[in-house]
Amino acid sequence: MSVFQDSGFEHQFLDSRLRQGSYRVDPTVSKPNIVFITVDMISPDCYFTSRPLAQVIQTPNIDAISAEGTSFCRTYTTSPLCGPARAAMFTGMHPPYLTNGERALCGSQVDLQVDDVIFQDYLKAEGYILKHAGKCHVGVDKFIRTFGENVHAWDRWGPPVVDDDRYLDYLDHLNVQPPRYRRELVGLRTDKQTPANSFGGWIEQTDGADFPKEAHYSAFLADLTIRQIKAARRQEPGRPFFAQLDFFDPHQPYSIPSGFEKRYEEIKSAITLPASYTELQANNILPDNPIYALYRKYWGMYDEDTVIDYIAAHLLQVEVVDYAVGRLVDYLKSEGLWDDCVVVFSADHGDMNGRLGMADKGVYFQPDIFAIPLYIKAAKHTMPVMKKIETVCSALDIAPTLLAAAGIEKPAHMEGSNLLKVASGGEKEPMVQVFQTGMHVGMNFGAAIRLEMSGKEWFYGYNASTGYQELYDVDADEQVNLFYEAVGLAMRPELIRKMAEVLSTDVRWRGYWASFRLHNMEYLPDDTGADMQMLKPA
Known about the structure:
single chain; alpha/beta; nine-stranded mixed beta sheet; four-stranded antiparallel beta sheet; 14 helices
């Protein structure tokens, strides 16, 4: 219900009865259908064009979204962990918590609260029919409140393959039995012999028959999304739909179906071991940072063939996702929905993909686990747009961008920018993005910033738990910590000054500032009158 108009915008409320959740919308903007697709944990090896493996992987359907839209080539998430990264993406703000629920300490917040506002709430208020399939990992209570009782949102780190009723019914219709591993990859304990963590691998049916790719869980999620869109069009044909599809893949443990055997051989032949892995193996050492040493033990990637297979499996799993995305894209095109539909493809965070002898992600500051792809295909009538944008962007930009597509002005609390404007040649709003770690396999709280110095883009991280600091050349394929090297020593005063500006001027980062100023006191001004306790009783 409109309250009043101002400069062409109508003022609305998420809750009109209580006059709560004020926002503004341009009533002249037609509301396109929106499809929002995310993958879970994808290595930049798969989409950084400078990486050799990006020339090997085949993702024609994901590439189609990029080709018909805009690629934002320097995009980062705020956290390398699933739950916090998704919370930031949906709220448009830095995350309210820094751990996934599975490993959180008692008393830690791990979910969005039902009264937290996510961008989907605004779309719902503006008449969109909301649909969701796949992983949410921010608390199902919030998703049920926003998407409705029929939402298919599971709140765990791994997919509910064996206890998803709809998936089992899907397999029955295909006359396919549930999957089991035909060949499984495992890490090793420190004795380098005893099996430890599973990385997944290649799957077959429980009777040993080949497992068809059309029966894969990712294909099921794409099929479910198609059925949800069909339902939305039948339920209320005059209303636009917002369909969100959150894949678990290519997160390990991998589950590669039949039909990719030839691709496996082609990809494997193109892989060389990461230099950082080879160096660790040759010297038989653990990384010098305690948190890296901990993760190195956790993953147990002591066998070179396993590392190569892990990298190959990661790329293959992305190709499985691409196959599933293709089913959805084909449906949208066959129904005449593609041209005027806004389609966004992104990810929650990155993957180490064998670098430093590690898989997955962690609570440390390697740029590869903060980098994410971001492709935005606008509705046809908004063209033309720029094809590639090197401006640094954030997962925090996704929420205001999708709202802008529906004519909704960015709410005041959101921190990102409308990237549709940037894609049309406009300037991106300035934003200070802080990257944070927290609790995962280990506990390591810290903050990082991205900055440009000496003609390069740098990623500078401070680990509050240990005082260890990290500095990386973002454009390097192999990320080597340069903070303690000659280049880092030369840059250190300026790095510390810039970090101090960020941490000391926002109350949210006060916890990092408290120890950062002590660890780096010799590089900061000698404020003899400063109270190091930061608080003083009156």
